[in-house]
Amino acid sequence: MLGSQVLTPQPSVSGGIFSCKYGDLVATYKTDVSIAPVLFRGDALHVLYELPSSSIDCVMTSPPYWGKREYENGGIGLEADYRDYVKNLVAICAEIKRVLKPEGSFWLNLGDSYNGKGLVGIPWRVAFELVDNQGWILRNEVVWNKIKGGMDNSKDRLANVHEKLFHFVKQAKGYYYNADAIRSKPREAKVVNGAVVSATGVSGVRYKRQIELSTALTPAEKVTALAGLTQMLADVQAGKISDFRMIIRGQQRTTHSDSEKLSGRAKELREKGFYFLKYHPKGSKPSDVWDILPEDTQSREVHFAPYPQDLCRIPLLATCPESGIVLDPFCGTGTTLVAARNLNRKSVGIDISCRYLELAQQRLDTLL
């Protein structure tokens, strides 16, 4: 049985070191009943070359940033020119795309760097390369607000306290995405003095009054609007929706756009005189700005950039099925793998540093 072991293709007398091929190990791991993570020691690109095509369900990683610091055993991020860094990282992403299943997702956390006095824009340079030249589809750009960023002594610019997290997929439709797994629990509707009141206090009284007094609605439109409002309140009481907003012609501003070419809502408002925004009964999805504290408690004395487990939670719950495998080709001290293990997913980690993998193994062994 595999799991929580540092594996390399070279023979060794060290415990947990195997001489078989990486691809064979992944094939064995896929059928193993254990969900204990597997660790591969080696250069990310070379290890990825050996992994089977379409074998991984989700990739989540945070590569070493360009020009920030020198990690143990070198590796990507030490290039003299940022263009070489982008080129090297993009080459690794090509192999990630090959090993990822068609329905899989790739989450890439990247921080930016300065070249002289200028911010380089590395995250977006990489993203454009992946979209334009490798055919990835960018579904989301998440802003990770680190809340408590590190000390910044610069006197001629603002402090940098955010990083990018990109969500890429291989195909526009049919990729795995479980939105219900990441929804926040909604507040419940209640009945007050015999009237249904939504979670945010909507009883329908104000909307009913606006409909009745409207000079922008025809008598027929008023009848239809009142019937629609009655149905919405019934759906709230039955738990079919958790809440709603009503947009009435001449009363509320249209959402998104007033242009009927761009917004179906604008067209609906013109034709019917009203429309509803319904809130999902299981709660709302997260936004694309995440307030998450940076990791600062795990192995800080030997690894300077471990990202937090909380950053992994939404991506893994939403885009990796419980039966799937998560891959981190720059796993460092194993944060992605720890998060996957806590969420009952299998995972594979790759890193060039034996020391970091030993630290990752120690963290993972405490979870078993």
Task: Please render the helix and strand layout as text.
Elements: E1 6-7, H1 22-31, E2 38-41, H2 44-50, E3 56-61, H3 82-99, E4 100-110, E5 114-115, E6 118-119, H4 122-134, E7 137-145, E8 162-169, E9 190-192, E10 195-197, H5 205-213, H6 219-238, E11 243-248, H7 264-272, E12 274-279, E13 289-291, H8 310-319, E14 325-328, H9 335-342, E15 346-351, H10 354-365
Parallel strand pairs: 1-2, 2-15, 3-4, 3-14, 7-13, 14-15
Antiparallel strand pairs: 4-8, 5-6, 7-8, 9-10, 11-12
Termini separation (Å)?
14 Å
SSE topology string: EHEHEHEEEHEEEEHHEHEEHEHEH
Mind telling me which CATH architecture of the largest domain this is? Answer: 3-Layer(aba) Sandwich
Please indicate the count of domains: 2
Low-pLDDT segments: 9-19
Q: Give the full name of the CATH homologous superfamily of the largest domain.
A: Vaccinia Virus protein VP39
The fraction of residues assigned to DSSP E strands is 15-25%
In the CATH hierarchy, the third-tier topology of the largest domain is known as Rossmann fold
Question: What would you note in describing this structure?
Answer:
With 368 residues, the protein is of the alpha/beta class. The protein has 2 domains: 6-182 and 286-365, Rossmann fold (3-Layer(aba) Sandwich); 190-279, no CATH class. It is 32% helix and 20% strand. The protein is built from 10 helices and 15 strands. Helix 2 (44-50) runs parallel beside helix 3. The longest helix is centred in the middle third of the chain and has 20 residues, at 219-238. It is elongated, with a radius of gyration of 25 Å. Residues 9-19 have low confidence and may be disordered.
